[in-house]
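Friendly challenge for the regulars: who can give me the structure tokens for this chain first? No prize, just bragging rights.
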Amino acid sequence: MTPVDNLFFLHYMPDADGTFVKVYLYGLMQCYHRSLCDADIGEALGLSDTQVRCAFVYWQAKGLVRILGDDPLSVEYLLTEQPAIAGTTPQKYRRFIESVHALIAPRTLELREMKAMYDCIELYGLEEGAVLALVAYCIEQKGKRVSTNYILSVAQTWSEEDIKTQAQAEAYVTDFRARKHGAAEILRRWNQTRPPTKDEMDLYDRWTNELGYDAETILAVCSRMTDVRTPTFAYLNDRLIDLKDQKIETVPALLETEQQDALDREFAKLVFARLGKVGHPDLSTVRQLRMFRVDKGISREAILMAAEECATGERPLGLLKKILSDWAQTGVHTAEEAGKALTRPKPAARKKKNAALLYEQKPISEQDFNNLIVDLNEEL
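First reply, four minutes later:
Bragging rights claimed.
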């Protein structure tokens, strides 16, 4: 036989779910019959492990059991006339505290900690549903042993930011998880296993909300940062802003730009070959040549002709840029126009005046000359 206190039937059972009652009674039977203590409650009652755990979380909130361990689940039964929590919770917060215990189980709240939960509602004006979302958020950040001081500090921040309803709290948590997941994906792409910092998550939030990038595009840009040994969020931020200025905001646009950049680099290499330069053109030179070709309208053939003309110069690349700048101003665009410009006689260079001779000169009269003459006989 398994004795059950009448208080259970009179005080606890009427409000309890039928599944919870079955779990409590079966566990109570195991306490009295050691030969059955190893039996699996879920298997015996046709319940899942989650259902069994939820039942014991409920009875822990009522003060009839204490959960000692979570993996494996270990439960201690208490005397019904000495409940651990029953009677310590105001009636209006009874279900609320039960829900909090369900989140933090197997841990139970002390009286001081329960008062902190009430303060989230009464002092900071959060709805009960918002507080439950807040507790789940804090557990996600700090684990189930999270301090109530931390929970209160977050509650104060949410109150100041006017996050008080359950819908607002859930939206905030959803957005936070999205930012954390997105920033963590970037770190994983860089083979970093640490969690993202708040500043890194704020940057990710800026990229998605302010700059309008989606996660796919951000990761696509991230994976192309092969030009830096140690990539950082700050460097990625600069890259994304630069792409935004170029109106490159999607993966297809990024791929198209990469193809164009590859063509520009190949053309720059061809220009270097015509200049007689050894080595690879840097990004600045590639972009300048593209500017002359695309923005100024100078044809590829004209640029190559100018490069050949500059090959024998002392500073061929600088001379090439000067010629192309002059052509952009004078309207030289085609190969034919370039040929005429290159065969046109160059204006004679004006001789520079010596700056030392540019002083103001005073006219000298005949009398001035006479005054300069010295009669040596008279001096003697």
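The chain has a mean pLDDT of 84. Strands lie at 65-70, 73-77. Your move, everyone else.
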